[in-house]
Amino acid sequence: MVEITHSRSYEQDLMAWYEDTIAKLKTGNFNDINIDKLVEEIEGLAGRDRRELKSRLRVLLAHLLKRVYVNSPDDYRDWEITIREQRQQLLDLLEQSPSLRNYFAEILPRCWNDARIEIKEDYPQTELPNKWIFGEIDALLSEKFW
């Protein structure tokens, strides 16, 4: 492994910095770890998971709305495939990080509204419910609503 100083490693070769930091953590060499950069990276990972959850939830809700309310039988299969994929990915995220359920519940109303607006723009003749109809998180991630 190539030894590179904290700032040069982090700024010029992130993977080398990861490997170096992991090695230092494993050996208990805490004094040589750039704590500020480590905290920044961990915060970035948390943010990445929240962004992924939000993105997948929006896609799921949009496809659920299309599948339930848009009369387009030729598209049903594709929408159902997307619904299954997004559900599985969301379940995987929640299994890996159960505390994301709190964030899920927090962003659900906003994601619902975003998905509703998107579908209303794409299918202006389709009547959509104004209120959330898909039940609790577990139902959203498992039940067929069509």
UniProtKB/TrEMBL annotation:
User: Which top-rank group of organisms is this from?
Assistant: Bacteria
**What is this protein's name?**
DUF29 domain-containing protein
What InterPro entries does this protein's entry cite?
DUF29 (IPR002636)
